[in-house]
Amino acid sequence: MRVLVIGATGYVGSRLIPELLDAEHEVRAGARDTSKLEDSWWHDRVAAVEIDVLDAESTRAAIGVDTDAVIYLVHGMAGDDFSDADHAAAENVAQAVGDAQVARVVYVSGIIPGVPEEELSAHLRSRLGVEQVLSASPAVVVTLRAAMVFGGGSTSFELMRQLADRLPVTVVPDWMQHQVEPIAVIDLARAIVGALSADTETGHFDVGGGEPILYSDLIHQYTELANTQRLQIPLGFLPEKLVAQIASWIADIPAPTVKALMESLQHDMVAADTRWRTAFLTEGYKTVATKEAITRALTVSEDVPDEQRDALQRWSSDPEWASQG
Predict the structure, then answer these.
(1) CA dihedral defined by 287, 272, 72, 88, rounded to 10 degrees?
(2) For residue 235, which of 56, 168, 211, 317 sits 20 to 30 Å off, Cα-Cα?
(3) Residues in contact with 140: Cβ distance below 8 Å, sequence separation at least 6, in sequence order
């Protein structure tokens, strides 16, 4: 299958493309700056495609007429107008997909809590809006909704790691006492590959590792495995915006991204069902447990080339802030 991955230089894309190649797909790696693809060990096994999803002509040219499937991994979380940019990009992709008669689109989104849309964070509202725009295209659009994607170099994992390692105590406001269901990046990658050929119609699937856990308990689990135990202090009066601002000062991750992710902790981020396992995973495939995912993400193999490292470890192609202690 000829597959265009839009957002190939991102974290999920970097781990997904080797899985696509192993499945013998013909991979076209789409990025706004294709020179960044050269940081990835697999770059010489894919066709680099320049694409700016905010430009309709660029998007149409990249998707072309010989693309069987599009995997859409683009998410805007920076700037005050990220939602408008997300919507415009989705419109361009949906139009190009329709024009090129692409058969299938796989979109990776976030878990959408069962609350009124106006109560969702701006980040999740935007992701839901992108899902709705893409799903209106003529293609079969499979949306995979994930909460925290675990692995060394993952934004969600690195935010938790940096805050837990750097703060002398862990402060847990009441609004953060919600459940989350992490998924290992390699399991998400397998789900994406499975979604390319699964017998399914347009719709969404919640994808989770199967272990819902309170966020405070997840932090405790992490610090035990990292041997950086911290005292946890519940504080019910801390406002979300203040906590997000402090977190953005402490973490090396770009501040708008930190604030967007922190907003998502105001609701349970747990998969509603397990349909994805039978729909997209091969029989007998075992997903990675949370403790194992953390342990593997913390394993360092500095002298080992990326292509020989565990996909759950940090890779040299990951953002520079992911390598900070």
Answers:
(1) -160
(2) 211
(3) 103, 104, 105, 200, 201, 202
Domain residue extents for the chain: 2-323
Q: Which of 1, 61, 3, 54 is nearest to 29 (CA)?
A: 3
Half-sphere exposure at residue 186, Cβ-oriented, CA atoms within 13 angstroms: 20
- pTM for the predicted model, two decimal places: 0.94
Q: What does the alpha-carbon distance between residue 132 and residue 143 come to, in Å, rounded to a whole number?
A: 10
Q: Give, for all 325 residues of the chain, the pLDDT tens digit.
A: 999 999 999 999 999 999 999 999 999 999 999 999 999 999 999 999 999 999 999 999 999 889 999 999 998 756 567 889 999 999 999 999 999 999 999 999 999 998 888 888 888 999 999 999 999 999 999 999 999 999 999 999 998 888 888 888 877 777 778 899 999 999 999 999 999 999 999 999 999 999 999 988 999 999 999 988 888 877 777 777 777 788 888 888 877 778 777 777 788 899 999 999 999 999 999 999 999 999 999 998 888 999 999 999 999 999 887 765 5
